[in-house]
Amino acid sequence: MSELQEILGPSxxxxxxxxxxxxxxxxxxxxTDTPKEVESVQQRIARNMEVYYYNPWAMVEDGxxxxxxxxxxxNPIKPFPINxxxxxxxxxxxxxxxxxxxxxxxMTMSWLMMFLHLWLVMFREGSAVFIVSDKEDKSNELVKxxxxxxxxxxxxxxxxxxxxxxxxxxxxxxxxxxxxxxxQGANQLRQFTATAxxxxxxxxxxxxxxxxxxxxxxxxxxGKFTAISSPQEGFFKDICFDLIR
Length: 245
Known about the structure:
two-stranded antiparallel ribbon, single chain, alpha/beta, globular, 7-stranded mixed beta sheet, Rossmann fold
């Protein structure tokens, strides 16, 4: 099995290069009945992978990222909204090692962050991404959102790496990358080296400060720490307004 097939998994077919027909009407080896649409899919995937490697927002603009709206019983699966504030947050997230964002309901901020951290483990080999909430079951719910996004990315737009889901985890063995959901607390993160950490509803944690301080080596080492939350007085507000001493 080739290295690429190992990454993608046996269920993903790799479209090889198209061999031009020989003069006189003869077909290339192995491509006797290759339809033109297969060639166009191959070209589109190659172009997309190059663009998406640097620009996750392009996946949103191309309409291949979906969310689950459980308040809509008729049409719960929806394309990710192309809202200007979400694009701006994406740009800031890509450019910053530490970002804190106030959110409110229906802003799709949690979905955005789960998509961005999923993009990281899909497109950056060796990534270790941690999704942190006040409770482990809430972290698992967020990881499930990332799994939903992954499962709904069309196969004819992206070469998706093989993924193994378990409780609180998405493992990408071919890339040596993973996403892991953990509860708050310094001891949950101190034993790991993280590429990125997402802290959800950070303002309402009992151990927000100690979790953040345990994450400091990640930031200092070039990784990312992202905190999102509804507004609340306390440590999260201090981060948002650069009041940390």
